[in-house]
Amino acid sequence: MDNIHKGVLEVFITTDHLGEVVVNITTPLFNPGYFQTLTVRNKEVKKVNFDHGISGLGTELSNKGIYVQSDNEITVYAVNKASETTDAFVVFPVDTLGDDYYVITWNERSQFMIIATEDNTEVTITVGRSGTSIIFNGHVYNSGMSLTLKMNQFQTFHAFGGLNSDYSGTYITSSKAIAVFSGSQCNKIGPGACDHLISQMAPVETFGNNFVTINMASCSSPVNFKIVVSENDTHVNISGRSNVSLPNSGDIYSFNTTSLTPTVVVTDKPAALAFFSQGGCGIVSGDPAMILLPPIQQFAADYTFSTVEFPIDPFTNSLTIVIAESAISGLLLDRKNITSEHWRPIIGSNTLRITNILVPEGSHTIYHINPTVTFLAVSTGVEIIIHTDIQQDNNCSISVPVPGDIIDNDCDGLIDEELEDGIDNDGDGEIDEDLAKPFEELSTTTTTSNTKEIVGDNLSTYMVIAGVLSSLFAISCLSTALYFLKRKLKGKSGQVEDVFSSISSNNVPPVHNAVHKKA
């Protein structure tokens, strides 16, 4: 996607695999073409640079897909690094993608990108009700109108709405799996400066019903949120506020919270929730940030993350944690109990608590001694988070459980919720139907990653979410407020053959941690 400033496009690859991983990176359709084979080891970070011409520009159908394959689990993230505007986007493995999406953007220079993963893919885009049009091939598509495209594998479609634009609620459906990214060329939210925003959209089949809003650590600015609903007559309950009814699928509801009022959000039908931080946050030139928040059902039981050194000014690295109060004592950071004395309640929940803790530079692992206990971890700063997120799949099939397979074996919307002990741990009347595996830490030495240049501007804050989606790692780095989201997902088969992504001109570091096992 396009960045208002032209900079350097970089793809970063890392792994938590103990052995050496072989990675192939190609641009099958782009001219000039690119092909490289590299190897990456545990905690090591490799960087690949791309020509700026591969960015999505304006509104165009083009050949800008980048194809990444590996023979074991990797994390892939891309950075569009420009003066004062640097951002990152999440990249999901191919088998975690879907064919129905809704776009969420803010209200300035909005844009979205579609990437086809197979030949002969028919894509239909129905423009949302926000008033922004798509102008393509001499035709104007206004709100409610549909544009149909024929796309082949690795082709990309990029739409740009102009200065005062918002594509929120735009519905995209396809005959085969596609990837969808959305954001802004440069958007100002509240005080501070504008910044490039981008996040990968989750397919509708992975939408959830229960969310927790969070704040950015050490930031007193209000936090903005947007909800998009996937079905008609959806009711939204934000704890402490009046219920909201959204009559149509694709409707958007926006709200904000103060920095210290985390809140439960419940919808009676599937929805997605996007986080938009305001600029400023104590820094006059601070920039905003955007990221999708995982539903509570997708919280994970362990996360591994590594801070990234900034060569000019060091950052204060923080970790925001949401977990049930009864489980706090079993939570470990680098094998030590978390000593925070400031666990705060969450409005609308009698059980969940939230805290922010400082973490030193380096690599860290946070996990629970009971692998069936899940929680949310959000790292503020320039960091990479590895987590395991799983979203409920409406087409789920019952499968034989393997401990720690990160698959919803019993199709109840949860993953790995039973211990292999012959007891009904989750109280659903079934025994050992979806098995967790006790956490095993890697006995490796922490190394410093070579991603010191990830930030291309004067960052004030940054944020990393450790969420869950089926076998994928994603990093979402947002400019001055730099967000890194790393997700680990597994497809229903338990394997992810490859990672497919597109680099746009948004300073976005896509992070994919896909389980890549070649047949």
UniProtKB/TrEMBL annotation:
The keyword Transmembrane applies. PANTHER family: IGGFC-BINDING PROTEIN N-TERMINAL DOMAIN-CONTAINING PROTEIN, IGGFC_BINDING DOMAIN-CONTAINING PROTEIN. The chain crosses the membrane at residues 462-485. Residues 87-379 form the IgGFc-binding protein N-terminal domain. Signal peptide: none annotated. InterPro entries: IgGFc-bd_N (IPR035234). Keywords: Membrane, Transmembrane, Transmembrane helix. This is IgGFc-binding protein N-terminal domain-containing protein.
